[in-house]
Design brief:
The protein is mainly α. It has 8 helices and no strands. The longest helix is centred in the N-terminal third of the chain and has 27 residues.
């Protein structure tokens, strides 16, 4: 009986963590009012292809526009370039992989199409002010704290 209760509690904890991650993803997918459907399609394409090489050509083809049109309107509507947005999305995916997987930095950087592990680490630190491994440790510590607090909850 105790094993069943413990397993049920672990499943609840896992589900809680997954729901929090889902909510974060939904929040990130929010469409700003100033973004046209074409640029949103570009954003969606990029978010869903972070583990593949992505070129300006790929993004422009998605909306049947020229590279110059796509780059100009993307920058005007979002305030960042397409390449900066690609990097931003890859870094967000890297954060999730660091928090929820045991993949090595080499695997993550390769999977997300960074040119090298060193480049990935430098870009990550520049963006978030912490190294990928420090981020992973912090996230694992936070999850462990959440798990401990949920274990202490009666019921």
């Amino acid at each position: 009986l105790h094993k069943a209760i413990r397993r049920q509690r672990q499943m609840c904890i896992r589900d809680s963590i997954m729901i929090m991650d889902f909510c974060q993803r939904v929040h990130e997918a929010h469409i700003p009012k100033s973004v046209t459907s074409e640029i949103y399609q570009c954003m969606d394409y990029i978010r869903n292809h972070t583990n593949e090489p992505i070129s300006i050509d790929d993004v422009s083809r998605k909306i049947y526009r020229s590279n110059s049109y796509t780059m100009k309107h993307f920058k005007e509507e979002l305030g960042i370039s397409i390449s900066a947005y690609i990097t931003k999305c890859r870094l967000e995916d890297a954060k999730r992989l660091l928090a929820y997987s045991d993949k090595s930095l080499a695997e993550i950087s390769s999977y997300l199409c960074f040119s090298s592990q060193a480049y990935f680490q430098n870009v990550f630190k520049k963006q978030y002010g912490t190294t990928p491994l420090q981020y992973r440790k912090k996230e694992h510590k936070a999850k462990a704290s959440l798990v401990n607090s949920l274990k202490k909850t009666p019921g």
